[in-house]
C-alpha cells in the first residue's frame, strides 16, 4: 500500500528523481533517514509536512502516512527531498 502512495507523492512540478547529491563530502541518497540527512546537510532552507490517508482497494482508510518535503538551496541549485514516514523517497531538482 505504501508503495502506491509513495508513487503518488513524487508527482509534482519538479523534475523526475535526480538521484543522489552531495552535502559537503557526504552523498545523500534514497532510503536514508531524516536524521541522517539532517546530520550531513543541516537545517533545510524550508520544510513542509502533510498527512495522507493510506487506503485499501475498497477505498477504506487503513492508516495515515506522513510526507515531509525539505528544500535545500545552494550553489544556484534547489533540491527538494521527499520523505515518506521519515525515509527519503526522492530527490528532485527544481
Structure description:
It is built from two helices and six strands, in the order H-E-E-H-E-E-E-E. The protein has 94 residues and is an alpha+beta fold. It has one domain (2-93). Strands 3-4-5-6 form a four-stranded antiparallel sheet, with helices on one face. It has a two-stranded antiparallel ribbon with strand order 1-2. A hairpin with a 2-residue loop joins strand 5 and strand 6. It is elongated, with a radius of gyration of 14 Å. The model is unreliable at 9-15 (pLDDT under 50).
Number of strands: 6
The helix/strand series, from N terminus to C terminus, equals: HEEHEEEE
Category by helix and strand content:
alpha+beta
How far is it from the N-terminal to the C-terminal residue, by CA?
A: 28 Å
Describe the main β-sheet briefly.
4 strands, antiparallel
Number of helices: 2
Provide the number of structural domains: 1
Poorly predicted runs: 9-15
Query: How would the global form be characterised?
Result: elongated
Strand order of the largest sheet: 3-4-5-6
Question: What is the averaged pLDDT score?
Answer: 85
Report the sheet-strand fraction. Answer: over 45%
The Rg value, from CA coordinates, equals: 14 Å
Helix content: 10-25%
Which tags fit this structure?
four-stranded antiparallel β-sheet, 94 residues, two-stranded antiparallel ribbon, alpha+beta, elongated
